[in-house]
Amino acid sequence: MRNLGPVLADAWRLFKPYFFHSSERRLALTLLISVGVMSVVQTELGVLTTFWSNLLYDSLQQKDQHSFMALIFTWLPLPSGWFMPGLLAIAMLFILVGVTQLFVTEYLQIRWRRWMTGDFLQRWLADRAYYRISVAGDPEGVGTDNPDQRLSDDIAAFCGAGGNVRPGTDTLSLLLGLLSNVVSLFSYIIVLWKLSGRTPVFGLHIPGGLIWVALLFSLGGTLLTYLIGRRLIALRFFQQRYEADFRFGLVRARENTEGIALQGGEHEENAVLLRIFGAIRGNFISLLRRILLLNATTISYGQIASVLPFLVIGPSFFASRITLGTLMQVNQVFGEVQGAFSWFADSFPTLAMWRATVGRLATFDRAVRSAREAAAAGIQVHDGADAYRLQDVALALPNGERLGAPLNITLAPGIDTLISGPSGAGKSTLFRTLAGIWPFATGRIERPAGRTLFLPQRPYIPIGTLRHALCYPAAVADIEPDAVRRALEDADLADLVPELDQPDENWVMRLSGGEQQRLALARALLARPDWLFLDEATAALDPDSEGRMLVMLKRRLPGTTIVSIAHNPAVAGFFRQHLVLDGSGGTLQAAD
Ligand SMILES: Nc1ncnc2c1ncn2[C@@H]1O[C@H](COP(=O)(O)OP(=O)(O)OP(=O)(O)O)[C@@H](O)[C@H]1O
Fold first, then answer.
1. Where is the ABC transporter domain (predicted)?
2. What is the ipTM of this complex?
């Protein structure tokens, strides 16, 4: 596999935090080592079984019923003084170890997934990395699409706990597969070496002859599989990406049903969704062709492998130089050695899928890290001042383009300010910068202490009850029920009071634009901020309601300084000063 080094380095970076740095690392490592030990025990039981079957076939050849029964039900004493346990005991041990290993592995996987999901979520949401990523993307170009998929499917696929994860394709299964195959290889090679001593290959005595046959045969298979299977990696990667794009398209359509219905956009939606699906289909067909070719190769190779030992040592058996038991044991051990050698080749499709998952998680991880690091660059923000002071604050777009001349203004507490200016001048961008979330501004901002609330034009209404939406982002338990009711009444939404705790209502779909804006104002009443920034947050209201809401805000929040972006000249009378943002740097003027 080309570039295996960087993939393994990425996988290690994703693997390490839980097992070596998390608070549950001791338990995690103990469980990991336990499943490893159980895997080795299973492999060694397999080795024991080949010796057991050697004795069994010999007992059959010699028609020795007593030994045969002992090998099934009890144990058979050996000339060396040791004894061979019967099938009953071996099988019971196999079942016990197998079931315990399965349980412990799955328990570890779900704990790991829970931890890793929590860790990724926390870092993605910290320092507003999620926001920067969504507005700016990332230079690698592949690290940030569909973060939802990375946080759900990819982590589940990496840790191996989740309904959609194909068994055997996760990190732990691959690690255990690798471990048991390495142990298998060593254990069976020793057996094969011993057997080689008394088993001529094609009638010739070659030291370790059987091992060489198995090695050459497996290397041939590995090379062939690699050549056919290497394109699978990219195909898998894109398959996951297209699937996520399609799901995202469907979610967007679901969330915008009204907009689509009002504009009659069904035909276009259908065409767009089918176009995205076309990519899934096209890629899947290429994937399928590759998989078919690969399977045809591995199955043919497997068929040859099952008869090869008989061809190689059959002549010795017919010349009575080895017993039936030895013939069968060589066949079994040869199969195991060949199987272990070709593990890499057989696992190629799985490794390709795993590699795509690692790639998606690692690039996302890097994008989150660089977004968090970049949060410290750009504009210098200093908190704890007595006012908002902007010094040479230059707004810019993600592509570096400037939005007007730098701003040098001060917004003092107690002086309500109206901001206006032509559409696209950068008013909302200025708010984003003041909030500290816009990563593409330069200069220096001093911000006052105290609570600040920004209300955008389209308020975010989270999933849950109306009470939850009103209290957001505070917890419902932290807000007095009476205060919630009063806030709704003051925002002219008294009709909704009886529905405060009604579950399963899609409030975004149900409330009108103006009602959603008034809901956000009610939220401001509950939050009681020292500074309230309104970005056209009353624009959906009729002029009378807009005026009434501003009066209500002033009455209910007397200690709050309001800074509002508005296009409606009628609201100008509510503000003490006016900032016109027209690209020339903006100057504050006292209201008439
Ligand atoms: N994420 C982004 N990527 C690229 N350009 C952006 C992005 N966000 C905003 N812009 C651009 O920045 C410019 C300023 O946008 P902004 O929303 O600040 O304008 P505005 O003055 O608030 O406009 P309006 O009055 O229409 O709301 C616009 O040209 C807009 O297209």
1. 388-592
2. 0.95
Q: In angstroms, what is the span from residue 275 Cα to ligand 1's centroid?
A: 29
- Decide: residue 565, CB within 10 A, 0-12 exposed, 13-18 middle, 19+ buried: buried
Q: Atom of ligand 1 at shortest distance to CA of 581? A: 21
SS3 230: coil
The pLDDT tens digits along the chain (592 residues) read 556 789 899 999 999 999 999 999 999 999 999 999 999 999 999 999 999 999 999 999 999 999 999 999 999 999 888 999 999 999 999 999 999 999 999 999 999 999 999 999 999 998 888 888 888 765 555 456 778 878 888 899 999 877 667 777 889 999 998 898 889 888 888 888 887 766 667 667 777 777 888 888 888 888 888 888 888 878 887 888 899 889 989 988 888 887 788 778 888 889 889 999 999 999 999 999 998 998 898 888 888 888 888 888 888 888 888 889 888 988 888 888 878 877 766 777 788 788 888 988 998 898 888 888 877 677 888 888 899 999 999 998 887 888 888 999 999 999 999 999 888 889 999 998 888 778 888 899 999 988 999 998 888 887 778 998 898 888 888 899 999 999 999 999 999 999 999 876 778 878 898 999 999 999 999 999 999 999 998 888 888 889 999 999 999 999 999 999 988 777 888 899 999 888 777 777 776 6
* Mutation test residue for ligand 1: of 128, 130, 144, 397, the one with most atoms within 8 Å of CB: 397
Nearest CA to ligand 1 atom 2: 135
Q: Give 429 Cα–ligand 1 centroid separation in angstroms.
A: 6
Residue 534 pairs in a beta bridge with 455, 564
Query: Contact at 8 Å (CB) between 563 and 516?
Result: no
Distance 10 CA to ligand 1 centre (A): 37
Cis peptide bond N-terminal to 79, omega within 30: no
Phi/psi at 436 (5° precision):
85, 15
What's the gap in Å between 573 CA and the centre of ligand 1?
26
Q: Which atom of ligand 1 is nearest to the CA of 136?
A: 1
Domains of the chain (ranges, CATH numbers): 1-196 (no CATH), 380-590 (3.40.50.300)
Tokens of 258: 């009204």
User: 406 C-alpha vs ligand 1 centroid, how far in Å?
Assistant: 16
Which atom of ligand 1 sits closest to the CA of residue 421?
A: 21
Task: Residue 508: count other Cβ atoms within 10 Å of its Cβ.
Answer: 16
Beta bridge partners of 561: 531
